[in-house]
Amino acid sequence: MGKRNNTVKKAFYYYIFIMFAVVLLLSGVAVKVCTVMRDKIIASHAYVYEPRTGMAGEDERLYTYGGTYVIPPEDTSEQKETESFRENDSQEFTKRDRLLCHLLEMLTVFLPFLFSCTGIWVAGSILYSRKLKEPFRLLHDGISHIENGDLDFSLEYRQNDELGDLCRAFETMRQKVLENNIEMWSMAEERKKLNDSVAHDLRTPVTVIKGYSEFLMSHPGSDCVSPKKQREILSYIQNAAERLETYAESVHHIHMLEQLDLEYSETDLPRLAAEITSALKVIAENGGRSISVSSHLPEEKVSVSAAVVFRILENVVQNAVYYSKEKVSVELAKRDEYLEIPRIFPFIPV
């Protein structure tokens, strides 16, 4: 995975910084324009005297009128005329002008706040559309596929940022779930085949037992069935019952293997082959058969669950001994990383 060049965190700070600069500029311009317009309205109704230079006496009085400095004249008649003019000018400062001044003062506060809110919204919208919208859509579609049980899709998002990592993790999870489902489906198919095989194997002895039982029930105490014939029929029924018992044990062993915890350990293959040969010879001798075990295992150590290997071999060889008349042949080999049993052959003369 490449180095992140533009993460979501960096993009967030970048957009916030740019929008802060824009908001600051617009707010400054807006405040300046409002202040200038307010001052123009006030100045249009003000009677203004420029301050006289060189007059710093204690008797000098300065007054403000309309936001500027106003110096009343020294002459009394002229002062009265000025005051009369100021009264007339104050009357010309209408309610509309006062309302405009108050409105402009409010705008100097409200516009920066409005620009800040708008800038946050714009920055968030740009960040969402450029960084968040596409991965969120892909993740939403992927979740919808999984909810509907559809894992045959691919989620591709190639950006090297936090959301790109999230999308790749989601895709990895999807692949793992798909692999697990495929494995489960394979196991279900194998179990179905096993059930079909067991049902097929059980059908024959059940048919034998049922047929001979019906025959004996239809001829109770009949002279047409000699004692020798009865013993022969009972022998067939007994053999069929033993086959049913063998099938039941095989199925039981299979379920035990599925529930068995695997404990792996380092094992030397030649030593494992010797232990397997010794165990299988005991099984064959108990069944009154001979056994031949040929090993093609290399001189190396592997990690293997010996208990499971012995359980599988013992179960299979017991069945082979049961069906064999004289001898059982077993081969052990290793292919790649797998321990292989290429052949377990019961010799059955015909």
Question: What would you say this structure looks like, in words?
Answer:
This protein is mainly alpha-helical and about 350 residues long. About 65% of the residues lie in helices and about 10% in strands. The protein is built from seven helices and seven strands. It has helices at about 10-45, 75-90, 95-145, 160-220, 225-260, 270-285, 305-325; strands spanning about 65, 70, 265-270, 290-295, 300-305, 325-335, 340-345. A three-stranded mixed beta sheet has the order 4-6-7, with helices on one face. A hairpin with a 2-residue loop joins strand 6 and strand 7 (about 340-345). Helix 1 runs antiparallel to helix 3 (about 95-145) and helix 4 (about 160-220) packs antiparallel against helix 5 (about 225-260). The model is unreliable at about 45-75, about 80 and about 85-90 (pLDDT under 50).
Major sheet size, sense and barrel closure: 3 strands, mixed
Q: Give the count of helical stretches.
A: 7
Q: Termini distance?
A: 66 Å
Strand-pairing-aware structural class: mainly alpha
Helix content: 55-70%
- Which series of helices and strands comes N to C? HEEHHHHEHEEHEE
Q: In total, how many beta strands?
A: 7
Q: Unreliable stretches, pLDDT < 50, 5 or more residues?
A: 47-76, 78-82, 84-91
Mean pLDDT: 76
| C-alpha-based Rg, rounded | 50 Å
Shape: elongated
Q: Proportion of β residues?
A: 5-15%
- In the sheet with the most strands, the strands line up as 4-6-7
